[in-house]
Specification:
The complex is a heterotrimer. By secondary structure, chain A is α/β, with parallel strands linked by helices. In chain A, 35% of the residues lie in helices and 24% in strands. Chain A has one domain (15-253): Rossmann fold (3-Layer(aba) Sandwich). In chain A, helix 3 (107-114) packs parallel to helix 6 and helix 5 (131-143) crosses helix 6. The two termini of chain A are 34 Å apart. By secondary structure, chain B is mostly helical. Chain B has a domain at 29-273. In chain B, 69% of the residues lie in helices and 2% in strands. Chain B contains 14 helices and four strands. In chain B, a hairpin with a 2-residue loop joins strand 2 and strand 3 (183-184). In chain B, helix 11 crosses helix 12. In chain C, helix 7 runs antiparallel to helix 8 (161-177) and helix 11 (213-262) packs across helix 19. The B-C interface holds B 58, 132, 135-136, 138-141, 143-145, 147-149, 151-153, 155-156, 159-160, 162-163, 274-275, 278, 281-282, 285, 315, 317-319, 321-326, 328-330, 333, 354 and C 266, 268, 322, 325-326, 329-336, 338-343, 345-347, 349-350, 458, 462, 465-466, 469, 500-501, 503-504, 507-508, 510-512, 514-518.
Chain lengths: 255, 354, 531
């Protein structure tokens, strides 16, 4: 897949950030960040610690309000006005760096809670299980390779299994965009490569933005890379392209 | 699939039914209201467990909802005294005549009607919980902060109800009740009926609570308790769920209070004391939070212990209660039911992670 | 001028010469007519002799009589038939007297007035400044034109500026009461208007309707000025009450600011630690009463370090025994420390009984000072100073001591601190102990203004938590601001809404405030706080 040109128009982009800034007590975590991601794209966002990656995700998902700038979804929805739940209902799923699943629920219940369905109190109170839901849960369990653990408490899963379960929960939401924060952290090499393959298979039908430190993992993703530095985009392009740039090398090695 | 009535709940309900039927046969009449009082406490514990055990909302002000329900019922019972009070005033309760009221304050209107009072016993605590919860949960006040402001809430109500100007009998509260729906409160049959109603309310609320926690909404509540932000990012509006369960729980507490007052014959501002509310927490913690049945059992055990100790070794009661708090938090994180489960099964299944 | 010399002589030679002259004057009392007697009385009044008042009072009571045998002036007491005589100056018992053996020294109304004036003069000339001040204030309260001269003389002789001021007000009031020319009385109004507002009001109110329009106008102007001045001072007084209550809140909350604010531990036994501090004070005073009563003035100075160490040790025990097993589980900590609080309450109740215990206030704290037109009581002033001192001390410990550095290191990054060789367990225990020790200090202070009973702590626990949360957890300055703000708000609301309703309003305000800004007035800074 050939990545589209940088600077795509705001109408064409699925996710469009322009001039976004946010500071915490004078510290500019995000400083004039602009980013455009096309539907179906797989994008890696890299950058040293404190570059603003997590704050960027917080802003997109409605957890943090920007001080300035535009954040648009599908060219017309202003994400800065929505809370987390509303952003999630638009079809934006987020995976945390530390795997976060519902530990006292079974693997199956974790997925059932994530399945795309009405989210209101009354709807869940009166909810009845359907055969269709059962089938979707079974399919997801196959996809994330946790079918044998279906009835296990999530607390008893291994670290890697929890990462996968969380990705499975994201998929159950049937999102248009997945934001994934350091999925390879704490994984074995084999798990890392499997995760890369899984994300590549997800992209296309959905848009995927991966924040990552692990260069081998980013290389395995084989996608367009955005380098963040001090809250703004430093470079964008293929991994080979950005890693050849002197300023990027400075940022990564000069510290 | 979690069953509505699991083994534990079934056993408890069966035992409750049996005990309720047997009580009039084996117990002297004067003990019946005491048993009814215990059942009200058990219901209060179930109410608190619903919001603390499942949604992680540790309310240190549930005594306030209980007391408000009690006051609503107490107001009706005051009105039912009618002209038979000391001052023989058909429109004003004795304390109002004593304090020089010349007409009934507006918030007493309608309490002469039993259905209205019964409704208010649910609506007032529910409304307070809804408004309070709506503000608190929307601003994402949680954990200990929420606990502290719920404590401040009941403390503020305590101070308010002590004031004669509030129109709720001040320090003395409401008492000297005579009849409910025309039945004398001291008649054995009335006492039995109230006891039976308490048991039925406990059973009914237990089943309702089970229905909530076994529904998908109940799973969302546990999800909120375990990983709130994950729940939000899945698209659930957490505050809605928190307000819902807090309000339902407060209404159950109000019901418990409404059943409690005719059986003990008095409601006064002391019920709002923060210490009372914290005591409810130890019932739940001892029985096992997040088990509902455990909460009810915990209440029965602690309250029975309290009755016995305060009668035989009054100095020991606070030592015992204090020790219980420490013991439960340090040694019995899953309460008595957790302990029982550990003996029953070789591998413990942690129902609740702290 | 003669008087001034006399007065000076009296100051300088309070010995023989003075008593001689009083003796002479007393001997001359029975002589002559009422006018002569009045002159003598006047002179007695000017002696300033401490014994003179007794003579004049006896004269006023018609108890002074002259012995027929030797002409000696004696005081006769007792009923008819059982009368005894004593020497009016020495009090020497002169035995029983027959009713016919003495002649009464008679007084009429004119003489009585002279006697009263002379008595006023005497106290105005008393060597004890506090009695002179009292006399001046009495003269101001009951202005009497007759006293004008006496007051003029006293003002000239007075060298204490404060008393001279009081005398000048009394003088002005007396002038106002006299039939002096309007100009003089206007000047008197002018002089009086510098007096405290309440004095102005009581002294000038009777002249609001004065016959002379200029005078009446001046009076009402002075009264208006006094009223507005009084309003300002009343606000200052309210502010002071607020600061005083704020200091109590600060003392109660500051220990929590450590355990809750710095360590994040919810210690519901905090109030009981305060209560233990108060009981330490009680125990120290009891020991002093039975063992060394002369040390009573030092009891608080002894109790302060003792309470800090004792209650701090209890805190360390609570941390090591219970709290340390519950780190990261705030709700469980809350419940366990509640259990501790019940046990401490009952333990104290068993040991000391359920009733209030008497804790005395040392003399140096019990007085009151006048600042402008407001009153500062000694105990309140001491608590304000003590609270601020504890606060400042704590700031120094946190900022500038090795322990403070370790404490901040552990709370910010436990693992890193441990790697640097800091014994985190020890730091935890000491930090908790510090918070507890400060609670003990608060107890010493609160024993001075509150009932020392096992329930003492319960009255403070909710307020303390609200102060810490309202101020912003982890921010000592926020705790200070919150305590003072809430204290003042409480006192400002009190006259308007009543004490209880005022407190309820404050509680509701804080509940709403916390819901609006869950992190308090001064939240901890940084991105971490967003989490």
């Amino acid at each position: 897949m050939t990545p589209p040109a940088i600077g795509a128009t705001r109408a064409a982009a699925q996710l469009y950030l322009d001039g976004v800034s946010r500071s915490f007590d004078g510290f500019k975590a995000i400083n004039g960040l602009s980013l455009a991601v096309q539907p179906g794209e797989l994008r890696a966002v890299i950058g040293p610690n404190g570059a603003g990656k997590t704050t960027m995700m917080d802003i997109i998902t409605g957890k943090t309000r920007p001080d300035a700038g535009v954040v648009l979804w599908n060219g017309d929805t202003d994400l800065t006005r929505l809370d987390e739940a509303a952003v999630a209902r638009l079809g934006i799923g987020r995976k945390f760096q530390k795997p976060t699943v519902f530990e006292t629920h079974s693997v199956e219940d974790n997925l059932r809670l994530a399945l795309k369905a009405p989210r209101g109190v009354l709807a869940t109170l009166l909810h009845r299980r359907t055969a269709d839901e059962d089938a979707r849960v079974t399919a997801l369990l196959e996809q994330i390779r946790l079918a044998p653990q279906r009835q296990d408490q999530a607390a008893n899963l291994s670290h890697g299994q929890k990462q996968w379960l969380e990705i499975g929960m994201l998929l159950a939401q049937d999102p248009a965009l997945l934001l994934i924060d350091e999925p390879a952290a704490g994984m074995t090499d084999a798990e890392t490569m499997e995760t890369a393959a899984l994300l590549k298979s997800i992209a296309g039908a959905r848009t995927v933005i991966v924040v990552e430190h692990d260069m081998d993992f980013v290389r395995a993703l084989n996608c367009r890379v955005t380098v963040l530095h001090q809250g703004a985009v430093l470079a964008e392009g293929s991994l080979d392209h950005v890693s050849a740039r002197a300023d990027v090398i400075d940022v990564y090695l000069g510290r | 699939m979690t069953r509505l009535i699991d083994r534990r709940t079934g056993l408890f309900l069966a035992a409750l039914a049996l005990a309720t039927l047997a009580a009039p046969l084996v117990l002297p009449t004067h003990l019946i209201p005491l048993m009814g009082k215990y059942l009200c406490y058990a219901l209060l514990a179930v109410a608190l467990d619903l919001c603390w055990g499942y949604a992680g909302i540790l309310s240190l002000g549930h005594g306030a909802f209980f007391a408000l329900g009690g006051y609503a019922m107490g107001m009706h019972l005051m009105r039912e005294i009618g002209a038979r009070g000391v001052y023989a005033n058909p429109d004003l309760p004795d304390f109002m005549v004593f304090l020089g009221y010349d007409h009934l304050p507006w918030f007493w209107w309608g309490f002469a009607s039993f259905p209205y009072a019964a409704l208010m016993a649910l609506v007032v605590p529910g409304l307070l919980a809804f408004v309070f919860g709506w503000f608190a949960f929307r601003s994402r006040v949680s954990g200990v902060y929420l606990s502290i402001i719920t404590q401040a809430l009941t403390y503020a109500l305590l101070l308010a109800f002590f004031r004669n100007e509030m129109g709720f009998g001040g320090n003395n509260g409401l008492t000297d009740f005579r009849e409910v729906l025309g039945f004398s409160l001291s008649a054995p049959a009335t006492r039995l009926a109230l006891f039976g109603l308490s048991a039925a309310a406990l059973a009914g609320c237990l089943i309702l609570a089970r229905a909530i926690v076994t529904s998908k909404a109940g799973k969302v509540l546990v999800a909120v308790r375990d990983a709130e932000s994950r729940t939000r990012f899945l698209g659930y509006r957490v505050e809605g769920y928190s307000v819902f369960v807090f309000t339902v729980s407060a209404m159950m507490a109000g019901l418990a209070g409404a059943l409690y007052v005719p059986q003990v014959g008095i409601i006064n501002p002391g019920e709002f004391a923060p210490a009372n509310s914290i005591e409810i927490v130890v019932w739940v913690a001892l029985g096992g939070r997040g088990t509902l049945v455990g909460a009810a059992l915990g209440a029965l055990v602690v309250v029975a212990l309290k009755s016995w100790l305060t009668a035989t070794f009054p100095d020991l009661w606070l030592f015992a209660l204090g020790g219980l708090f420490i013991l439960v938090t340090l040694a019995l994180p899953n309460g008595l039911l957790g302990l029982a489960a550990r003996f029953a099964r070789p591998r413990p299944r942690a129902e609740v992670s702290a | 001028m003669r008087l001034l010399t006399l007065c000076l002589a009296l100051w300088l030679l309070p010995g023989l010469a003075l008593s001689q002259s009083l003796d002479d004057l007393v001997a001359r009392l029975p002589l002559g007519d009422y006018a002569d007697r009045a002159a003598v009385v006047d002179q007695i009044g000017r002696t300033g002799d401490p014994r003179a008042a007794a003579v004049l009072e006896a004269l006023l009571d018609r108890a002074l009589e002259q012995r027929n045998v030797d002409g000696r002036v004696v005081r006769v007491t007792g009923g008819r038939g059982a009368q005894t005589a004593t020497d009016v100056l020495t009090g020497e018992d002169l035995g029983p007297v027959a009713s016919r053996s003495t002649t009464a020294i008679r007084v009429n109304n004119g003489l009585r007035r002279s006697i009263r004036t002379a008595l006023g003069m005497l106290t105005l000339a008393d060597p004890d400044p506090s009695r002179r001040r009292a006399a001046a204030e009495a003269a101001l309260r009951t202005p009497d034109a007759e006293q004008i001269d006496a007051l003029t003389d006293a003002m000239a002789a007075e060298d204490d500026p404060g008393i001279r001021q009081a005398l000048s007000w009394a003088h002005a009031a007396a002038v106002l009461a006299s039939d002096a020319p309007v100009a003089d009385r206007m000047a008197a109004v002018e002089t009086l208007s510098s007096a405290p507002a309440l004095t102005v009001q009581s002294a000038l109110n009777p002249y609001r309707e004065a016959a002379d329009p200029a005078l009446a106008q001046a009076v009402s102007r002075a009264l208006d000025a006094a009223a507005s001045r009084q309003a300002v001072w009343a606000q200052a007084q309210t502010l002071w009450f607020g600061v005083s209550l704020g200091s109590v809140l600060l003392l109660a909350a500051i220990g929590l600011a450590i355990t809750f604010g710095v360590m994040g531990v919810i210690n519901l036994a905090h109030g009981e630690l305060v209560m233990l501090g108060a009981y330490t004070t009680y125990a120290v005073q009891e020991a002093i009463r039975t063992q060394a009563p002369h040390l009573f003035g030092w009891s608080l100075a002894i109790a302060v370090p003792l309470a800090f160490v004792l209650v701090g040790a209890v805190g360390v025990a609570i941390e090591r025994g219970i709290v340390r097993h519950l780190y990261g589980r705030p709700l469980e900590t809350l419940l366990a420390t509640w259990g501790v609080s019940l046990i401490l309450q009952q333990a104290v109740r068993t040991l000391f009984g359920p009733t209030n215990r008497e804790v005395g206030t040392p003399d140096w704290m019990s007085g009151a000072w006048q600042l402008g037109e407001m009153t500062l009581t000694g105990s309140r002033l001491a608590i304000v100073i003590f609270a601020l001192a504890v606060f400042a001390g704590l700031l120094v410990v946190m900022r500038h001591s090795a322990f403070g550095l370790q404490m901040r290191a552990v709370t910010q990054n436990r693992a890193m601190a441990a790697n640097l060789g800091i014994r985190t367990g020890r730091v935890d225990a000491l930090t908790f102990g510090l918070g507890a020790g400060i609670a003990g200090l608060a107890g010493v202070a609160l024993s001075q203004i509150d009932n020392v009973s096992p329930n003492l702590g319960q009255g403070y626990i909710i307020d303390s938590f609200l102060v810490v949360v309202f101020g912003g957890v982890g921010n000592l300055w926020g705790t200070l601001a919150a305590a003072m703000g809430l204290g003042i708000a409480n006192k400002v609301l009190e006259p308007w809404a009543g004490a209880v309703l005022g407190k309820i309003l404050i509680l509701i305000f804080i509940i709403l405030f916390i819901q609006k800004r869950p992190r308090g007035l001064f939240p901890q800074r940084g991105r971490a706080a967003e989490g």
